[in-house]
Design brief:
With about 260 residues, the protein is α/β, with parallel strands linked by helices. The protein is about 45% helix and about 20% strand. Strands 5-4-3-6-7-9-8-10 form an eight-stranded mixed β-sheet, sandwiched between helices. α8 packs parallel to α9. The two termini are about 25 Å apart.
């Protein structure tokens, strides 16, 4: 209950400073809103991907999970056994947010993609279907969940995607060695301030002018809000868009450094 009250408070505060597309004077951001966020095209992939998600959300298969992130609290990790349905419903994103990830990737066509937090592989399927030609690595701390994700990728005919299994702190350096640069990164794991900042710093070293970083749950906690504040202030970052649930980071050159809170 306390968590929900805090989220409501943070969202109310967010709305006080938020703008609509009619108040945006940045051509780049206005175009992003019109061409991607407000794109109402019903792409044929949507139905296939959401039906697959719902299939997993109805599965009673037990999965022993390992959590190295926020859910572990003060411990190094925690283990639990849950039905796959519960994991999918709790850890996957809403349909609207999944579609947004799909549209971003479809529009910008990133060749190199990295995801923190595979879980059951739902968001990865949307990202990969958005641009199937991308080379993608998705990282997951739990081997059993990674196995479920791999089953999904095979069932959906997804190729050029590798799953790296292990604690992000231990495997990230080796994963980044696979990339010359990073065009798109989805940060959806750990959800704590210090690891988030560390992951951002590691990935920012491989950013380019067209890179897009998407952070999940930037208002989830005071620690995540502080991480988001510091990321916005980073001198390499030119534009950020705060959608409350997602935070988008751009590294474009030649445009004024600005931060936007957007209600769409």
């Amino acid at each position: 209950m306390i968590k929900k009250i805090l989220l409501i408070y943070r969202y109310t505060k967010f709305r006080l400073y938020a703008k609509t597309r009619y108040n945006i004077h940045s051509h780049f951001v206005y175009s992003f809103i019109e061409d991607i966020i407000r794109d109402n095209t019903h792409y044929s992939d949507y139905k296939k991907l959401w039906n697959h998600r719902n299939k997993l959300a109805a599965s009673s298969d037990p999965v022993e999970t390992v959590d190295f992130g926020f859910g572990a609290g003060e411990k190094a990790y925690t283990t639990n056994i849950y039905p796959l349905s519960r994991i999918v419903k709790r850890r996957s994103h809403s349909e609207s947010r999944l579609r947004l990830l799909y549209r971003i990737v479809k529009y910008y066509k990133p060749l190199s993609v990295l995801e923190f937090g595979t879980a059951a592989g739902i968001s990865a399927t949307y990202i990969k279907y958005g641009y199937p030609k991308s080379n993608m690595v998705t990282m997951e701390g739990c081997a059993n969940l990674a196995s479920k994700a791999e089953e999904s990728f095979n069932e959906l005919g997804i190729k050029n995607i590798d799953i790296a299994v292990g604690n992000f702190n231990n495997i990230l350096a080796n994963v980044l060695d696979k990339f010359n640069s990073l065009d798109f990164v989805f940060f959806d794991g750990n959800h704590r301030m210090e690891p988030t900042l560390m992951y951002f710093e590691s990935c920012a070293k491989l950013s380019n002018e067209n890179s897009i970083f998407v952070f999940d749950d930037i208002h989830w906690s005071s620690g995540m809000e502080e991480a988001w504040r510091r990321i916005k202030e980073d001198e390499r970052v030119s534009v950020t868009i705060d959608l409350f649930w997602f935070g988008l980071v751009f590294f474009r050159k030649g445009i004024e450094k600005q931060n936007f809170n957007i209600v769409v």
